[in-house]
């Protein structure tokens, strides 16, 4: 679980987010936002 958490934090930091808590709140409102960070398009 810690590995997955660290991966998620790393992805958010790479995307330019400075506040991980704010980024988590932002991305939980719309699940497709995280796909955009990963360079994927929702189906």
Annotation keywords:
43 residues; mainly alpha; 0% strand
Structural notes for this entry:
It is globular and about 30 Å long. The chain is 65% helix and 0% strand. The mean pLDDT is 90. It contains three helices and no strands. It has helices at 2-14, 20-28, 32-37. It has 43 residues and is mainly α.
Short recap of the structure:
The radius of gyration is 10 Å and the shape is globular. It has helices at 2-14, 20-28, 32-37. It is mainly alpha-helical.
Itemize the secondary structure elements and their pairings.
Elements: H1 2-14, H2 20-28, H3 32-37
Counting DSSP H or I runs of 4 or more residues, the number of helices is 3
What do the pLDDT scores average to? 90
Multimeric organization? single chain
Intertermini distance: 27 Å
Radius of gyration: 10 Å
What is the string of SSEs from the N terminus onward? HHH
Unreliable segments of 5+ consecutive residues? none
Q: How big a fraction of the residues is strand?
A: under 5%
Shape: globular
Structural class: mainly alpha
Please estimate the helix content. 55-70%
Q: Would you count the extended β strands for me?
A: 0
Largest sheet, strands/sense/barrel = none
């Amino acid at each position: 679980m810690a590995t997955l958490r660290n991966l998620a934090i790393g992805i958010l930091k790479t995307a330019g987010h400075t506040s991980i808590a704010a980024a988590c709140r932002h991305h939980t409102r719309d699940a497709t936002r995280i796909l955009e960070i990963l360079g994927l398009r929702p189906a």
